[in-house]
């Protein structure tokens, strides 16, 4: 008997051939369908009509959609928690359990946790829940570079991440960094065939950069003023000018703007502010501001003998660094980490020196949250409050409260722990406004705006 290669006997030699099926044994599709329905008929179930089957299918589809939606919401919530731990509280890894060296999530005693240890309800509770009365305000957030527009320049991508993480925080620092990044965008720009720079650059190149920066963190007022100025410069470009000439003129205009409205302006303000500090005075300042720091150091370099009292923001503690810098320069410094003894400290103070994030046209001061408390305490004890502000920070907008314009602290954006980054101080609590155009009353801000329009 011959064998197949696998050792099985050949067909017809020792292995009986399968019996052919008769037509009655071969079920057809027509006979198969009734066979499936027979158990239902025997069990007494009622056969559904076409309309009922359609309604049932529709209900099943809606249920599946609801399940998919729930899973997406849970995934988004977990991504929001784990993507930006510095902004939205503890990371997802911290909620679920820290990972050991082997990469497994470790619980108490180093034992690995099961994937289902944390229910989905815990993750969904970490979603940002902004109170309804603050829903109109924006908040800084990290935008993944993969989600940015393809036309966003690499330098702008890096700047957006720095702003979202508050590596660049002060308004003037953000303004200067933004203009220099836009300068690189202009230098790398090439006008497409059939277009002109004046018509194509703003909508197709500049606007995507602005939208990305705004998505990372809301623009400050100085950035808004400078961007309007830059768009105006682009619109003024001669249609017949070559691309190289137009790009050179724009870059030169940006350099001039930075030099005049930022560098020289800061020098004039610090010099004027230092002259307001007299011998024997006690200067109180809040938090840390670069322009206030330079003003105090310039006054000390001029030989003025005075002391400084630093009241710090309890949430940021930047005043500690200011106290260290001033102390290292030989200035007598007292430090307070919160507002606990603000009134007692204000009694020993002769003058309050603060900086402005912006100045509204009605003379109100927009500054770091807590500045209004300092100004109120100074007003009760009849202490002079001096504000240092570049004119690029002055806006034509008007505000009398801290809710119209503000920004939510990304680290404290939950309903249970909520904080705004800025507050608004009415002009009646302020005495002097020091700008590069002179020292005026805070309510004279509209006059400064008119001077700027005449200058431009």
UniProtKB/TrEMBL annotation:
Coiled coil, from the record: none
KW tRNA-binding (keyword) present: no
Domain of life: Eukaryota
One Pfam family, short name: IF-2B
Biased composition (Basic and acidic residues): 35-76
GO molecular function: translation initiation factor activity
Protein's cellular compartments: Cytoplasm, Cytosol
Family: Belongs to the eIF-2B alpha/beta/delta subunits family.
Protein name: Translation initiation factor eIF2B subunit delta
Taxonomic classification: Eukaryota, Fungi, Dikarya, Ascomycota, Pezizomycotina
């Amino acid at each position: 008997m011959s064998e197949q290669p696998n050792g099985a006997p050949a067909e017809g030699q020792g292995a009986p051939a399968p019996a052919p099926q008769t037509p009655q044994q071969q079920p057809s599709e027509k006979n198969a369908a009734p066979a499936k329905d027979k158990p239902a008929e025997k069990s007494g179930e009622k056969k559904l009509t076409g309309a009922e089957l359609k309604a049932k299918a529709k209900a099943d589809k809606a249920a599946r959609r609801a399940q998919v939606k729930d899973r997406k919401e849970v995934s988004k919530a977990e991504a929001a928690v784990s993507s930006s731990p510095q902004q939205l509280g503890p990371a997802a890894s911290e909620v679920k359990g820290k990972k050991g060296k082997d990469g497994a999530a470790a619980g108490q005693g180093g034992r690995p946790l099961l994937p289902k240890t944390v229910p989905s309800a815990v993750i969904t509770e970490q979603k940002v829940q902004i109170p309804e009365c603050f829903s109109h305000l924006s908040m800084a957030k990290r935008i993944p570079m993969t989600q940015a527009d393809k036309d966003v320049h690499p330098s702008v991508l890096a700047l957006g991440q720095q702003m979202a993480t508050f590596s660049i925080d002060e308004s003037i620092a953000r303004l200067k960094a933004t203009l220099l990044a836009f300068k690189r965008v202009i230098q790398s720009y090439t006008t497409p065939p059939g277009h002109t720079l004046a018509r194509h650059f703003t909508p197709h190149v500049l606007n995507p950069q602005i939208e990305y920066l705004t998505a990372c963190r809301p623009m400050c007022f100085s950035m808004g003023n400078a961007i309007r100025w830059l768009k105006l410069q682009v619109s003024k470009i001669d249609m017949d000018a070559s691309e190289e000439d137009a790009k050179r003129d724009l870059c030169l205009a940006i350099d001039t703007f930075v030099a005049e409205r930022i560098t020289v302006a800061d020098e004039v303000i610090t010099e004027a502010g230092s002259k307001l500090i007299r011998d024997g005075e006690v200067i109180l300042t809040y938090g840390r501001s670069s322009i206030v720091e330079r003003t105090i150091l310039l006054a000390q370099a001029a030989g003025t003998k005075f002391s400084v009292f630093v009241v710090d923001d309890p949430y940021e503690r930047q005043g500690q660094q200011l106290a260290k810098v001033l102390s290292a320069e030989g200035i007598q410094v007292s430090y307070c980490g919160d507002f606990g003894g603000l009134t007692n400290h204000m009694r020993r103070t002769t003058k309050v020196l603060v900086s402005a994030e912006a100045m509204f046209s009605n003379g109100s001061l927009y500054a770091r949250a807590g500045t209004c408390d300092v100004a109120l305490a100074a007003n009760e004890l009849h202490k002079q409050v001096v504000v240092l502000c570049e004119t690029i920070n002055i806006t034509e907008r008007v505000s009398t409260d801290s809710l119209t314009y503000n920004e939510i602290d990304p680290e404290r954006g939950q309903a249970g722990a909520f904080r705004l980054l800025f507050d608004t101080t009415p002009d009646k609590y302020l005495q002097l406004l020091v700008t590069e155009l002179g020292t005026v009353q805070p309510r004279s801000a509209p006059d400064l705006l008119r001077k700027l329009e005449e200058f431009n």
